[in-house]
Design a protein that fits this description.
The complex is a heterotetramer of chains A (381), B (545), C (279) and D (313).
Chain B (H helix, E strand, L loop, with lengths): L1 H6 L1 H9 L6 H23 L38 E2 L1 E3 L6 H13 L2 E2 L3 E2 L5 H10 L7 E4 L1 H8 L8 H4 L5 H7 L2 H8 E2 L2 E2 L2 E2 L5 E5 L1 H4 L2 H11 L9 H13 L17 H9 L18 H15 L10 H9 L5 E5 L2 H4 L12 E3 L4 E2 L5 E2 L2 E3 L4 E3 L6 H15 L1 H8 L16 H6 L23 H16 L1 E3 L6 H16 L5 H19 L1 H17 L5
Parallel strand pairs in B: 1-3, 2-4, 2-5, 14-16
Antiparallel strand pairs in B: 5-15, 6-7, 8-15, 9-10, 9-11, 12-13
Chain C lengths: L1 H35 L21 H8 L1 H34 L6 H11 L4 H15 L5 H25 L3 H9 L4 H30 L2 H6 L7 H4 L4 E2 L2 E2 L1 H21 L1 H8 L7
Antiparallel strand pairs in C: 1-2
Chain D lengths: L1 H6 L6 H6 L4 H27 L2 E2 L11 E2 L3 H7 L2 H35 L3 H12 L6 H12 L5 H8 L11 H16 L1 H13 L2 H9 L4 H30 L2 H6 L11 H11 L3 H33 L1
Antiparallel strand pairs in D: 1-2
Classes of the chains: A alpha+beta (381), B alpha/beta (545), C mainly alpha (279), D mainly alpha (313).
Chain lengths: 381, 545, 279, 313
């Protein structure tokens, strides 16, 4: 096992820049998840690690060894492909055995033993002799994992292998992968566009956008302290509530104005705005951080908005509940805000009915402020 | 055109009086007596005489385009066949005949010719036969080869021509001038004249004088073999010279070539075999081809193939001509017209070629016996199924083409591939024609130029003399019904022997075996009868003992 | 690094192989043209002349002006076009039926059985047809060859059209029916436009097969009708193989199929491989 | 009687059937079936009958078909030329088809893997497939010109390196091989197209997986590419093999079956028996044997196609 270090990776296809300037450091035994919308460069980064792409610029090292120009055969890696890329004409056994046979130094008995062992781990024993085209999607997935894991490579790569599976299977396999990764202490790089998957699986998330890494960190950090407006919006489900505000400072009071809605900020938050580049501030609140209130906060004077009191710094938005989506023990409520904008909140199941009117309130500490409306806008607080 | 109409006036009246040709009395006279007499006279003619038994028409050696016509009578007038278009088929060699001479015949008689059909030469018989089988014969004039004459005529496909011959003046003289073997073996079937010759084939030995006269070659050959380098007179000498030139010339030049393609390759074998006394069958239809002499002859031919260009077993007419033209071979036994083809262009062999007698085998008395094959030979015939009007027109056309007024020029034209078949064609006058352009034609499709074949009279004379010598020592191809079947098996095994797939002995034994089967298949009795006629005639001509 | 070297070596080997084969493939085509442009005297010389010293277009003039050569090309055109029209018309109808009402008309079995008649050596068919044509006076006629060529083209067009129709989901027609179109209108507005490329490819292929046919023509045609393939073996005039004319003819007669291949490559390929593959 | 009849369901009148469309399939298929019966099936059946007769029209021996039982078939299996032609067929159909398929496969893969430029790739593909569009007869003529013994360019070029006098068409095996070369030149495009199409349809990520799994090029070919293209390669081979039964034109023009009968293939022999000797009965027997052979091949092909298709579904 070894870590992976990527420095200034740049990959161009003609005039298209797939990755701009990616630098990464993945520790030995770590499960790093590259996450981002399609076209963000995550797959290119992964394929560069695999050696399937030759970088236009930059270096890739496994531990201390520079592998930038090595073909995949010469890198000690395994990879699970998005479409699995199983060899359709072979049986499960042959598929799993293939990487071992390529090494040319294992005896047939050793190969058999290794294949059977990994097959046991991944529940593939029952269909070892079946052709892979006859297997179900989940079974094929296991075979693909088994084929990748059988060789105990230095680096294990996964390119959105779960995207076509149903939800249940997806969850099951995710946890299995994580279990195996922990058990075997594999250095794993996983690519996904599914932020939920990223958060559940990763030791570390690498959020990418437009060919660049925009944030790297453990899931909690990324969730709670998104470095850019893009990250805040991309990570988290349901999507974060965003209010594009203009900054107004009047005699010691700092207010963010969003149409008819005013947010008065606590001193702490207000202080964080000192570094703002302009008047445009995006204020974001995760739906999970809103709570329902029948009435406005006490010091509410006019019905025009939440009047954030400097001392408690609470934010509140008057809304009407429009749609309630049940997600198990919680409900996602889609509300209509004062400017016609949609505001989402997550509340305990059954607490609200459609048509209810009231206020969504959040503590000021849970607000995320970004310097501008642009997706690259940096976090201020 | 007007002048010729008066000249032909006489014949016209005769034709009118005798719509079906002639009276019974005349028929008996010409058919019964004339046929036999013609046969005898031809033998004599062939052996050098120029006599005419019936002698009722003008000048026997005459054949120039201008004055020869006076012997021929047009059936009615110059528009006798106006509106009649004749459909014809030929193999490739006779193809340009109609465009060369058709206009002249049209002018005389009003008959015209369609575009014609040229059938592939290698499959001429089967192509023709398949058209005859399908129903009516789609031609008015058919080019025939004697090898197939018996096959066709046993089905009465072609019209006997005697009555038409008697429609015109001067025919007996014309018939008498046809060289004997052609007339006796190839034109007649069961006593009827069923075809008129257009071509008289004979094999010659061709050589390149520049090689034989080369001093260095002379010396080297002398020192290697202790003999003088000369155009070979015997077959063993032939192979020795061929070997010498193959070994001592530049790349791509060979001592000789062997015509190996089917079906005519058997002729090259018979060149060697007949002169050893080999015959096709004995009187009881027992094959004689695989006699010891036959095997020796084929062994000789197989050896010759060693001194020939590669693929020689596959080389046919066009390929062997090409080899000769390009100067790739020093000697070649071939049909008499080989040297004519070089006149068509500026080839390596142009102007550097001589003709000689086909080699033979030395006899006990020191003489040399030689028999050159009288092979292929084109003839014209008229389908029996045609309406009478068509037959008359068609006869007129083929008679004119065969007649010396035209054939003198046709045989001396490098673009026809037709060879002397009348005594006139071997005269000095004919030789002179070989040194002149053909006066009866301009250039046209298939004959883009009009060059003389030889540069000098001496060359032409040597060419014809060689041909005449060979003619006098000829040997006929099979012509009786079923000949094509015998020849097919014959040719297959000769080709196998030349290609080295069978030993000469095996090959000839196989031929004999096949022939026995064929005899039974075709009917032993009728075959024996038919072959009797052949062998008797061959005896008359002195070809067999 | 070693693997990269190996890779480039293999790639070089592959490119070299392609280059060598490309020369092998192109040379006969070049030589055809080269020979067609030479005067007869400089053909078959030793050593060979690798390029014509002066362009002699007389062979091409001959092919286009000579009545026999040009006539044979016209005969081929008539026969190939006639048989193509008939076989595509009948084959499309049958192909549609096999595709859409498969079970009612025997489905794949019957269409396969039709195709299998194409596998019989042509000589097996021409042997009896030769006599049949004799009775009906069809020998040596355009119509005779047009009919005879149906023996190989009709099974082909039926098979290919079935294949092309199969590739158009039936749901398209169902959608048209639901939208209120009659079967005929549905065919005209939905199926036909979709099958058109396949129809064109089938037409072209049937045409090329008929254009190139030899053995039927050789045996059945004669005096009045002579497709170009029957002329090529006889372009031997007075015992001289007229290689320049034969090759000029070869150049001329290969132009239409070559253009067809270039223009309809994708679909032609599907037809040539009987629908096994697509490019 | 009438009551019984009336109680039976009557077949709908034609007009009725037409209007509800049940006749339409038959109307569509009918003309084709009819034509095939008239021009193919009928004649073939007649020729089947002829194969049990002795019939030599146009020969001096026989005039009318004469039933002779299996005599023609006995003649056939004891005929030296037929057996030799079958051996030639085995060589031509075996080695020749193998050569075409192997070469076509290699070319297809080389083209797919090593030519990146699209224009060049399409150009080469066209060059390799264009001879397929030529009349086989024309292709045969072209190669006959190339192979001419004296003055032919092949021997001419060989001559410049000192190799002279190769008799390309002058012996059995070299002759067949020369024809095979010409035929390969013409038909290599078919396996090429099939394999190329097959290779293009294979998933690229599978090859990436193989690279990641550490497979060498050779292993990739042997374990991944070849097994997956094998079916198509076999199909290409069968398609070409079926054509071998019909092989005629090139043989006709290049060697005419010679020297001797050395390079004869069964169809050519059938032609000679039928149209040169006019032994119609024998030729019919011969062509039926050939026809059955090719139909059996076709059947194998069909079975193979079905198992292949069944396997991937």
């Amino acid at each position: 096992m070894t870590g992976v270090t990527i420095e200034n990776l740049r990959k161009e296809y003609g005039s298209i820049v797939a990755t701009n300037d990616v630098s990464l450091d993945i520790a030995d035994g770590e499960l790093a998840v590259l996450v981002g919308p399609s076209g963000c460069g995550k797959t290119t980064t992964l394929r560069s690690i695999a050696g399937l792409e030759t970088p236009t610029d930059g270096t890739i090292a496994f531990g201390d060894a520079d592998v930038t120009n090595d073909p995949p055969q010469d890198r000690d890696i395994s990879m699970v492909f998005q479409n699995l890329a199983l060899y359709p004409h072979m049986t499960t056994f042959d598929n799993i055995a293939f990487p071992l046979q390529a090494e040319n130094n294992a005896s047939e008995a050793e190969i058999r033993e290794a294949v059977e062992s990994i097959a046991r781990d991944l529940d593939c024993e029952d269909f070892l002799d079946q052709r892979v085209v006859e297997l179900s999607g989940g079974q094929q997935q296991r075979v693909a994992l088994a084929r990748a894991l059988v060789r105990e490579p230095e680096v294990f790569l996964m390119d959105e292998p779960f995207s076509d599976l149903d939800e249940l299977l997806k969850r099951k396999l995710r946890s299995e992968v994580v279990r195996l990764q922990h058990e075997r202490e594999i250095t794993m790089v996983h690519v996904t566009h599914d932020q939920e998957e990223a958060i559940t699986m990763g030791d570390r998330l690498v959020v990418m956008n437009g060919g660049d890494v925009v944030q790297m960190g453990d899931p909690d950090t990324v969730f709670n302290e998104p470095a850019e407006l893009f990250v805040a919006q991309f990570i988290g489900s349901p999507q974060i509530n965003r209010f594009d505000c203009t900054l107004e400072r009047t005699s010691g009071e700092t207010t963010l104005r969003n149409g008819d809605l005013d947010f008065s900020l606590s001193d702490d938050l207000a202080a964080s705005l000192d570094g703002a580049g302009g008047e445009e501030i995006a204020l974001c609140v995760r739906p999970q951080h809103f709570s329902w209130a029948e009435r406005a906060p006490e010091n509410e004077s006019d019905g025009n908005g939440s009047d954030g009191d400097g001392s408690n710094g609470e934010l509140s938005v008057p809304v009407t509940v429009e749609v309630i989506e049940k997600i198990g023990t919680e409900d996602v409520v889609r509300c209509r805000g004062p400017n016609g904008s949609e505001v989402l909140a997550v509340v305990a199941s059954g607490t609200l009915d459609e048509g209810a009117e009231g206020y969504l309130r959040a503590e000021g500490a849970n607000a995320h402020l970004f310097d501008g409306y642009d997706e690259h806008a940096e976090r201020l607080n | 055109m007007p002048s010729s109409s008066t000249e032909y006036g006489q014949g016209e009246r005769e034709g009118e009086e005798l719509p079906h040709g002639m009276s019974r009395r005349q028929y008996v006279k010409y058919f019964g007596a004339g046929g036999l007499a013609a046969g005898l006279s031809s033998v004599a003619g062939c052996l050098g005489g120029n006599e005419s038994v019936t002698g009722d028409g003008g000048d026997g050696s005459g054949g120039s385009g201008d004055d020869g016509q006076k012997n021929i009578a047009n059936p009615r007038d110059d528009t006798a066949f106006e509106g009649t278009t004749l459909r014809w088929t030929t193999d490739n060699s006779a193809g340009p005949l109609y465009s060369m001479f058709g206009p002249k015949i049209s002018e005389e008689s009003g008959v015209s010719f369609n575009e014609g059909k040229v059938l592939p030469p290698d499959n001429y018989y089967s192509s023709l036969n398949s058209q005859f089988i399908g129903g009516e014969v789609p031609y008015d004039i058919v080019l025939l080869v004697p090898l197939y004459l018996g096959d066709f005529q046993s089905r009465d496909l072609f019209e006997p021509l005697d009555k038409y011959l008697n429609n015109y003046q001067g025919m007996q003289e014309y018939l008498d001038s046809i060289i004997g073997p052609y007339k006796e073996f190839y034109m007649n079937y069961n006593g009827d004249t069923v075809a008129l010759p257009i071509d008289g084939d004979i094999h010659n030995l061709f050589y390149r004088p520049s090689y034989f006269e080369d001093q260095q070659h002379k010396q080297q050959y002398q020192s290697e073999y202790g003999q003088e380098l000369r155009v070979p007179k015997t077959w063993p000498e032939f192979n020795q010279v061929a070997k010498y030139f193959t070994e001592n010339t530049e790349n791509g030049v060979y001592g000789t070539q062997v015509f190996g393609a089917r079906p005519w390759n058997f002729g090259w074998f018979m060149d060697r075999a007949a002169s050893r006394g080999v015959i096709y069958f004995d009187e009881n239809m027992e094959p004689q081809i695989n006699s010891e002499d036959g095997v020796r002859a084929l062994e000789h031919m197989v050896e010759s193939a060693k001194y020939a260009p590669p693929n020689t077993a596959q080389l046919g007419i066009e390929e062997t001509i090409n080899q000769w033209q390009q100067g790739n071979v020093v000697m070649s036994p071939w049909w008499i017209d080989l040297s004519e083809f070089t006149a068509r262009g500026d080839f390596a062999a142009t102007g550097d070629q001589g003709s000689a007698a086909i080699p033979g085998w030395e006899q006990d008395d020191g003489s040399i016996r030689r028999n050159a094959m009288i092979l292929y030979n084109r003839l014209f015939a008229i389908p029996a199924s045609l309406p009478e009007e068509k037959k008359r027109a068609a006869f007129y056309a083929i008679m004119r083409l065969s007649h010396p007024d035209i054939s003198m020029f046709a045989t001396a034209d490098p673009y026809t591939g037709l060879d002397p078949f009348l005594e006139e064609h071997y005269t000095d006058e004919a030789a002179r024609q070989y040194t002149k352009p053909n006066p009866l034609r301009e250039t046209g499709e298939g004959f883009p130029k009009n060059p003389p074949i030889f540069g000098s009279f001496e060359q032409a004379r040597q060419h014809l003399d060689a041909g005449q010598t060979n003619m006098e020592n000829g040997f006929p191809q099979p012509n009786w019904p079923g000949a094509s079947q015998y020849v097919e098996d014959f040719a297959i095994h000769v080709q196998r022997a030349v290609a080295g797939q069978e030993t000469p002995k095996q090959a000839l034994d196989n031929v004999a075996e096949k022939w026995r089967t064929t005899v039974d298949e075709l009917g032993r009795e009728s075959q024996t009868q038919a072959y009797q006629q052949f062998i008797e005639k061959a005896r008359e001509f002195g070809y067999v003992e | 690094m070693a693997a990269a070297d190996r890779t480039s070596a293999v790639s070089l080997l592959g490119k070299g192989f392609l280059l060598v084969y490309a020369l092998f493939a192109a040379f006969p085509i070049y030589w055809t043209l080269n020979t067609a442009l030479k005067p007869l005297g400089s053909i078959n010389t030793f050593p060979p002349t690798l390029y014509p010293e002066s362009l002699d277009l007389s062979s091409f003039t001959w092919v286009l002006m000579n009545s026999r050569a040009a006539g044979s090309i016209i005969d081929s055109l008539i026969i190939a076009s006639g048989t193509t029209v008939l076989s595509v018309l009948l084959g499309s109808l049958a192909g549609y039926a096999f595709s859409r009402y498969g079970d009612a008309v025997g489905g794949e079995d019957v269409s396969f059985w039709l195709l299998s008649t194409r596998m019989f050596p042509p000589i097996a068919i021409v042997l009896p047809m030769f006599f049949v044509f004799g009775w009906f006076n069809l020998q040596d006629t355009h119509l005779g060859l047009i009919i005879l060529y149906l023996t190989f083209n009709l099974p082909l067009t039926t098979w290919l059209m079935r294949d092309f129709f199969d590739k158009i989901p039936y749901s398209f027609e169902e959608a048209a029916y639901v939208d209120g179109y009659s079967p005929f209108a549905a065919f005209r507005k939905v199926v036909f436009p979709l099958v058109r490329p396949g129809l064109i490819a089938t037409t072209m292929l049937a045409w090329v097969f008929a254009w190139n046919e030899f053995i039927f023509a050789f045996i059945i045609a004669g005096n009045d009708v002579a497709p170009y393939t029957t002329i090529i073996p006889t372009l031997v005039l007075s015992n001289q193989i007229l290689w320049n004319r034969i090759m000029a003819m070869a150049v001329v007669v290969t132009i239409p199929p070559t253009l067809i291949l270039i223009a309809f490559r994708r679909h032609i390929v599907e037809g040539m491989t009987l629908g096994v593959t697509e490019l | 009687m009438s009551t019984i009849g009336e109680n039976l369901p009557r077949a709908p009148a034609i007009k009725e059937r037409l209007s509800n469309g049940r006749l339409i399939p038959y109307l569509l298929v009918g003309p084709t079936i009819l034509v095939v019966f008239l021009v193919t099936i009928g004649p073939l059946l007649w020729s089947l009958w002829l194969s049990f007769t002795r019939w030599k029209p146009g020969s001096i021996a026989f005039q009318n078909p004469e039933f002779t039982g299996v005599e023609n078939f006995v003649w056939l299996v004891t005929n030296e030329r037929f057996i030799a032609s079958v051996v030639n067929f085995a060589y031509y159909g075996g080695v020749g088809v193998l050569l075409q398929v192997a070469l076509g496969t290699l070319l297809a893969l080389a083209l797919y893997n090593h030519v990146e430029n699209r224009v060049l790739r399409v150009g080469l593909l066209t060059l390799f497939t264009v001879p397929m569009m030529y009349a086989p007869l024309v292709a045969g003529r072209i190669w006959q010109l190339l192979f001419l013994p004296g003055g032919g360019v092949v021997n001419g070029l060989l001559g410049t390196v000192g190799l002279t006098g190769v008799g390309w068409l002058n012996s059995r095996w070299l002759g067949l091989t020369s024809i095979m070369i010409a035929d390969t030149w013409q038909w290599v495009g078919l396996p090429l197209l099939i394999v190329y199409g097959g290779r293009a349809s294979l998933s690229e990520s599978m090859y990436e997986a193989a690279r990641v799994d550490g497979a060498s090029r050779w292993m990739t070919f042997r374990r991944i590419t070849f097994p997956q293209l094998r079916n198509l390669i076999v199909i290409a081979g069968l398609l070409r093999f079926m054509d071998a039964y019909k092989f005629f034109d090139k043989l006709f023009i290049m060697t005419g079956g010679g020297p001797g009968t050395a390079t004869e293939l069964p169809t050519y022999f059938a032609y000679l028996v039928g149209f040169q000797n006019f032994n119609i009965g024998q030729a019919a027997a011969l062509t039926w044997v050939l026809g059955l052979g090719s139909v059996v091949t076709l059947f194998l092909f069909w079975r193979y196609m079905s198992t292949v298709q069944g396997g991937t579904n």
